[in-house]
Fold NADH dehydrogenase [ubiquinone] 1 alpha subcomplex subunit 1.
Amino acid sequence: MWFEILPAAGIITVALSVPIYAMYGLQKLTLGNAYRRNMDERFDRVMYQRDFRLTDNPYIMNGLHAIPDEDRK
């Protein structure tokens, strides 16, 4: 009958969803943050490096307030 496929479908669904949820905990453990930034494009990599250089934490939203002012003489 049609319901005989339900256990196999459940196993496949669980097996395919485990890596997605495991990465949340793994990144939280290794990076200290559960989310990664997308670095597929060069611009995204440059922005990651900029944020890391300005605040030492690339996961904090940075704006103009994060850039230190130059001393006026």
